[in-house]
């Protein structure tokens, strides 16, 4: 997936702006309905949570048809890094296609931080759009 060295990533995270938001990394796996990983500012990806977004207040950035043209379909933003605004609802959601029970996050806003941030958990990360390959270590 490319990206910075481990030391560079640690330095980036240590110098991140803080505030009442989360850093989110979009993780799209075909046929799943989780959104991706959220973490608090200045916390490593190892502390992140895979979440399902509640879009009743704000639609996710990639809320597009699944069969649209390339670059204009659901999941086009895989691996984008966002500032995500909102809150955990306290509810758990069963994501049937990955057989996981995940926390629900009420999305209220977002902004793109980086469209090519590279690896998420480690430099040896491997992405496969058909299966769950990016998991916390």
Explain this structure to me?
- The chain has 137 residues and is mainly β.
- The protein is 7% helix and 33% strand.
- The protein has 1 helix and 5 strands, in the order H-E-E-E-E-E.
- It has a 5-stranded mixed β-barrel with strand order 1-2-3-5-4.
- Strand 4 and strand 5 form a beta hairpin.
- The radius of gyration is 14 Å and the shape is globular.
Total number of strands: 5
**What is the CATH architecture assignment?**
Beta Barrel
Strand content: 25-35%
Biggest beta-sheet profile: 5 strands, mixed, barrel
| Number of separate structural domains | 1
CATH class: Mainly Beta
Low-confidence stretches: none
Structural class of the secondary elements?
A: mainly beta
Number of helix segments? 1
What's the pLDDT, averaged over the residues?
Answer: 90
Order of helices and strands: HEEEEE
How far the N terminus sits from the C terminus, by CA atoms, comes to 16 Å
Query: What is the third-level CATH name, the topology?
Result: OB fold (Dihydrolipoamide Acetyltransferase, E2P)
**Main sheet: strand order:** 1-2-3-5-4
Amount of helix: under 10%
